[in-house]
Amino acid sequence: MDGAPRQAEVSRLMILDVDLHHQQGGFTLQTRFQSDGRLTALFGPSGSGKTTLVNIIGGLINPDEGHVRVKERVLVDTRQGILVPKHRRRIGYVFQEARLFPHLTVKQNLLFGRWFSPRRERSADFAAIVDLLGIGHLLTRWSSGLSGGERQRVAIGRALLSDPHLLLLDEPLASLDEERKTEIYPYIERLRDEGNVPMVLVSHSVPEIARLATSIVVLNNGQVTASGPASDILRHTKFFPQSGPIEAGALVETRVLRHEEPYGLTVLQAAAGTLTVARLDLPVDAPVRVRLRARDIILSLSPPEGLSALNVLPGLIAAMEEGERGSIDVTLDCGGDSIVASLTRKSVERLGLRPGLPVQAIIKSIAFDREALGSARAGNM
Amino acid sequence: MTEWLSPEEWTAIRLSLKVALVAMAASLIPGIAAAYALERGRFWGRQALDVFVHLPLVLPPVVVGYALLISFGRRGPIGAFLAENFGIVFSFHWTGAALACAIMGFPLLVRAIRLSLETVDRKLEDAAGTLGAHPVWVFCVVTLPLILPGIIAGMVLSFAKAMGEFGATITFVSNIPGETQTIPTAIYTYTQVPGGEGGALRLTLVSVAISIAALWISEWMARRVRRRFLA
Predict the structure, then answer these.
(1) What is the pLDDT of residue B38?
(2) Fewest Cβ atoms closer than 10 Å to its Cβ: which of A250, B138, B202, B208?
(3) B208 sits in which H/E element
């Protein structure tokens, strides 16, 4: 695996630049990556060092060696002896367990950070954030009476209202059930798309990062095994060994082309063709990010006939590499979009697949699940 | 009411309340500081401080009183220094009774606050730190409100101990009516004279009433705090 981080363009503002060595008991964290993403996902199995890493960024743990820079500001540099204390880092931290102050009301919790931020740097708009997170009706309540989903939304609001330069989200949804998660995803998406605070999201859920991330850092056993734009990383099945090849897939940005009301279908326009999915409650031209899981893609040498699947995209084989457990990841170039199919070695040999060969990618429409329909607002899907 | 209790008895009650309230109030801030240092501090001599704070709990009160007499008395090193430089006199004065009561109640106060500090979720303090609060502010606006029930419990224990303190007080400041005679020492005096049973009984009843009232007030305050937290 490629251990070196990808170098992003120098011209863009680097949001996060981390190079650390930290020993904790028998565990060694040895990470180096940069990210300019609006939402960087730290992905990895439990015990891979994700939480230790965000704790170092947030100032809760002092690393043995290395540096942390957020938006070009040095927070930690052991060589220069710089160690900014956590209360001066301006990094919002949303913890797994919300950590709301039990002796304060929701409103007092939300305004907590504001008491301590320099007056001239207070730009977060209380009304707008309360509105964005949908917590206006909770303001006078005590935090102990809130539901899990409400607590996390208040915790996100509290962190945002301290005017942070970066927002850390440490598996904020891990303790919530699926229904509560889908309640919160749209809020995080709105923050990502409309807010001005870059985020770092710790997660071990592929559907979650596929839906939310713009950049991904894959951690395994304390080391960065890959980092880069979400669409690049998600294509490779080998970066997600713990979840198996079934979870990997390509992200494709599409737009709503039209709705076919009689059939209850929506047609999406991708670069190489159209994709038909179950009716989406979105206006025409709205952007939709879909994830095409590698296991849901069948390759055919000729345009298929007499097939029930509605989605077929033509493409050229761009690359072939060994995937997990003897399978082969075939990357297709479909009019600019990369799509990955995970095939057995036997199929590859039988079809005589090789780079440059034109093929047809067949995608069954049921492959679009709730999670994969990324930027669609939660609603009737 | 005034006819039921003699003027001497009233004086003893008033003095007892004054001594106990002053002892409780004066030991509050040192008590919180000691509890915090013992619970959170990692410094050389923490063990020694722990033992020192708890000494009044295990030593005979007379020993504590005598130690106070030789150190805080008019000829004692600390007593002489305070009297000369600040005009603060402890020996045979009501302030001495308050000092003796404060020291005897101190371990109880510290223990109650410390137990409460132990249960404070440190993660909440971390969260406050990431929101920009300096550690001093974190203590004031997060830790302190969260240990309020423990502080209230400690104050009641300290007050109750002061109301009942006998050995250290009588050894250090003697039993001077109107100056250092508190309810317990007054009861003791009544039991030593013929016909004093009535006064001893009346002061005993007053003592019981004050103790029950203190417990009741603390329960009421603790419940108010809890209700705020869990509402």
Answers:
(1) 95
(2) B208
(3) helix B197-230
Query: What range does the domain containing A43 cover?
Result: 16-235
Please report which confidence band the pLDDT of residue A216 belongs to, taking 50, 70 and 90 as the band edges. very high
Residue A181, domain member (yes or no): yes
- Structural domains of chain A, count: 2
Are the beta carbons of B130 and A144 separated by less than 8 Å?
A: no
Considering the domain architecture, whether residues A194 and A287 belong to the same structural domain is answered as: no
Return the CA Rg of chain B.
20
Q: Any idea what the CATH number is for the domain that residue A122 is in?
A: 3.40.50.300
Residue B231: pLDDT over 50: no
Which residues, in sequence order, are CB contacts of A35 under 8 Å at separation 6+? A8, A14, A15, A16, A200, A215, A217, A227
The pLDDT of residue A364 is above 90: no
Assess if residue A380 is contained within a domain: no
Q: Looking at the structure, do residues A57 and A195 belong to the same domain, yes or no?
A: yes
- B73: amino acid identity, one letter: G
- Write the pLDDT tens digit of every residue in A17-37: 999 999 988 899 999 999 988
Interface pTM, i.e. ipTM: 0.82
Beta bridge partners of A110: none
Domains, chain B, ordered by start:
7-230 (1.10.3720.10)
Residue percentage of chain A with pLDDT more than 90: 29
Best of A97, A101, A158 to disrupt the B interface (most B CBs within 10 Å) is A101
Tell me, yes or no, whether A172 and A24 share the same domain: yes
- Do A182 and A261 lie in one domain? The reply is no
Q: Residue A1 domain-assigned?
A: no
One-letter amino acid at A373 equals: L
Residue A11 pLDDT > 50: no
A350 touches chain B (CB under 8 A): no
Q: Which of A209, A235, A261 is the last residue of a domain?
A: A235
Identify whether residues A128 and A226 lie together within a single domain.
yes
CB atoms within 10 A of CB A176: 18
Tell me the sheet residues that pair with A339: A332
DSSP A167-206: EEEESTTTTS-HHHHHHHHHHHHHHHHH-SS-EEEEE--H
Q: Does A236 touch chain B (CB under 8 A)?
A: no
In B, minimum Cα distance to A90 occurs at B132
DSSP B142: I
First vs last Cα of chain A: how many Å apart? 38
Q: What are the counts of helices (DSSP H) followed by strands (DSSP E) for chain A?
A: 8, 20
Residue A245: pLDDT over 50: no
Could you tell me which of A41, A36, A73, A39 has the C-alpha nearest to residue A165?
A73
d(CA B206, CA B6): 13
CATH number of residue A274's parent domain: 2.40.50.100
* Residue among B131, B137, B228 whose CB faces A158 most closely: B131
CB atoms within 10 A of CB B106: 24
Chain B residue numbers touching A91 (CB-CB < 8 A): 130
